[in-house]
Please model this.
Amino acid sequence: MSNKVYIETYGCQMNLADTEVVMGILKSKGYELTKKIDAADVVFVNTCSVRDNAEQRIHGRLGNIGTLKQKNPNLVIGVLGCMAERLRDELITKKKMVDIVVGPDEYRKLPELINNAVAGEKGIGVKLSRTETYEDIEPYREEGLAAWISVMRGCDKFCTYCVVPFTRGRERSSKLESVVEEVKRLSERGFREVTLLGQNVNSYSDGENDFSDLLEACAKVDNKLRIRFMTSHPQDLSDKLLHTISEYSNICNYIHLPVQAGSDRVLKEMNRTYTIEHYLGIIERARKIIKGVTFSTDIISGFPTETEEEHKMTLDVMAKVRYDGAFMFKYSPREGTRAFKMEDDIPEDVKSRRLTEIIDQQLQIAYEINQKLIGTEDVVLIESLSKKSDQFYSGRTDTNKIVILPIGNNVEIGDLVKVKIHKGTSATLFGDFVEIVDAYKR
Ligand code: 5AD
Ligand code: SF4
Model:
């Protein structure tokens, strides 16, 4: 039987969570996951369409993967995720090596489509669903410390630049009970952190519960299990949610709250449905209600018609909020979206220059924020050895800051450790050991 599956995942955390759902579905049919592409009978690429450069990279990668068929003509190659949804049969007709194309709502069909592909028949499954949440599927997760749970799928916001409502369909939420059950299982398996995922978690609703209810129910499962969530849309972020975050010590004091742009006119063109005044109001209330809360954001530079003055307004709002982190992008036109019909009128060099100004300012602000943390103490979940040196651990604070700590003092991966910060860059803090707050599994 051809039963070894290799999956490569691109894009957002939602895709990482979907890859685990796909493996959950395939495992129940006897498939095994392999980390070696050369040993695989089936190779899947779970793809992202959010910007053109993501798609171009994946096209290149698919070309490489296609050459594996020369060695193994029976290899089944599948494209999953947003590119599958967007490009559909074009992927099969233009790329001869692709056997299967499956969008985010049809993963239950994969076992059948693999069987057909083995028998020589290509197949696609790209219907979007109003109800599919995969809540009855247990995602396949290796042992680890941090897990994702997708609590809602799709997006109804239709920001004019964004392809997600077209590739992932309408909003729908998993039942609170099914999410809480999953959190329980993860806690029993020794996970230390769970991130609740959705394109717009604040509009979570299972008919009876809103997102604050869900967050509270998850936090109550195990008061040592850290709960994170993303992404929040400023329109739907309620004070009730802010109070819930502040009430439970294991709900992390960190909010990813994309602002996208600093001018109300551009926000309106983007269909972002809030003003900067409203946005800054949330930040202010959050800082009052949640002690020490940190924020990150997403920014798009060079949206059609953005003037130099409006670009400065983006810099201005970033300087006002002083984000701890930011994901910053050049606008990329996506076919099918409303903004695609607008002329992409900001020249490439202007977009690049504006983006550089945004990034430079953000790095400076993050650096200043981190300098102020020198001398303070915080609790860090030790996640792994540092990428740069096996003499150091890497961990994260509740506020999502990366902290590097020398190995020693009986600290092990998975421990919660109090550290004292002695140095900071714009992206990383460096700490000294103070004490072990909670040892992991010992
Ligand atoms: N161009 C550039 N950035 C985009 N994003 C979404 N669509 C586009 C696009 N067409 C960014 C937004 C969003 C993040 C996930 O990706 O900032 O919040
Ligand atoms: Fe895209 Fe806007 Fe939905 Fe985010 S909220 S996924 S940017 S449409």
Remarks:
- The first strand starts at residue 4 and ends at 9.
- The pocket of 5'-deoxyadenosine (ligand 1) is lined by residues 50-51, 161-162, 258, 260, 298, 300, 329, 331-332, 334 (CB under 6 Å).
